[in-house]
Design goal:
The complex is a heterodimer. By secondary structure, chain A is mainly β. Chain A has a domain of 86 residues: Immunoglobulin-like (Sandwich). In chain A, strands 1, 2, 3, 6, 7 and 9 form a six-stranded mixed β-sheet that branches. In chain A, strand 6 and strand 7 form a beta hairpin. Chain B has two helices and eight strands; from the N terminus they run H-H-E-E-E-E-E-E-E-E. In chain B, the strands form two sheets. Chain B has a four-stranded antiparallel β-sheet, with no helix packed on it. Chain B is mainly beta. Classes of the chains: A mainly beta, B mainly beta. At the A-B interface, strand 4, strand 5 and strand 8 of A face strand 1, strand 2 and strand 5 of B.
Chain lengths: 138, 147
């Protein structure tokens, strides 16, 4: 089975504390969280939704490199010095990446962030016509 | 079951998994099996003057959000719409909650219910619950009673 052709193979960190690795940064290490996602097929290609509550467009970084789509969302504005009485969700930044299939047209990927949800459209490339290669003789 | 899926090789286990999920859903068990997480998740802080409740409700539109308080119970209610143009069998992965949701929370005593405020931004609902100003100890004069 060739996993590389499947966008649903995702790479994600465990819920773990990640330090920036920057010793000059005196900021406390931030939690890295794995956002919940949906992926579905449409006539045009694939659509990806990711829940990124607390992330605004400045804090969002979406990158395609080779066949990897990586999303990073930075959550701004923590609560300040308050006493936590009850906690169900973790506060941290979001990180998740996906292996894109070759059929996704990397140039035409588009994304929109609304109410803390990211929507990424991954259109399919048009099938290329078979091309005959002329054979020359010596 | 879709016979042909674009970009995805035939994967009998996946199909089986989906079928089992569908069966479980029919039995109303799947809610616990597939999404053990409640929706929405809530944090509660105390900033001194107020209790601040935050709930993660990304993707819920402001118009679909309802916050009510009555008889010491705070109710958060809303609807998270399914992604448009998505059919049930077109999902390759589905982790996000969808549908109607509701959570009820017992309010602590000593809350100024009239001063409660709610705001919504970036998928986070924030409800501010001001504490009733602490009443200073009141000195009760002691009278001399009839002897």
């Amino acid at each position: 089975m060739n996993d590389n052709t499947d966008i649903t193979r995702t790479q994600s960190p465990d819920r773990s504390v990640a330090s920036d690795g920057d010793s000059e940064d005196s900021e406390a290490p931030r939690m890295l969280l794995n956002p919940s996602i949906d992926i579905y097929e449409t006539a045009e290609g694939l659509v990806l939704y990711a829940d990124l509550p607390g992330v605004n467009s400045e804090g969002l970084d979406l990158q395609v490199q080779d066949n990897r789509l990586a999303l990073f969302g930075r959550v701004e504005g923590t609560m300040g010095p308050t006493e936590m009485l009850h906690q169900e969700y973790q506060i941290g930044d979001y990180l998740r990446s996906f292996i894109l299939s070759d059929e996704v047209n990397h140039e035409k990927i588009s994304a929109r962030l609304n109410n803390g949800v990211l929507r990424v459209e991954l259109p399919r490339t048009a099938r290329t016509e078979p091309r005959r290669i002329e054979i020359s003789t010596e | 079951m879709a016979v042909f899926r674009w970009g995805q090789h035939w994967n009998p286990l996946k199909d089986l998994e989906r079928e089992v999920d569908r069966l479980l859903q029919g039995m109303n068990l799947a809610l616990q099996v597939r999404s053990p997480r409640r929706f929405p998740l809530i944090n509660l802080h105390d900033d001194g003057e107020c209790y601040v409740l935050t709930a993660e409700v990304p993707g819920v539109e402001l118009a679909d959000l309802e916050v009510t308080a009555a008889n010491g119970v705070l109710t958060l209610k809303g609807l998270r719409k399914a992604p448009p143009e998505a059919r049930e069998d077109s999902f390759r992965r589905q982790e996000r909650f969808q549908g109607a949701w509701q959570r009820k929370l017992q309010l602590p005593d000593r809350i100024d219910e009239d001063g409660m405020k709610a705001e919504y931004a970036l998928g986070i609902l924030k409800v501010t619950l001001p504490k009733v100003a602490g009443t200073a100890a009141r000195s009760i004069p002691v009278m001399e009673g009839p002897s």
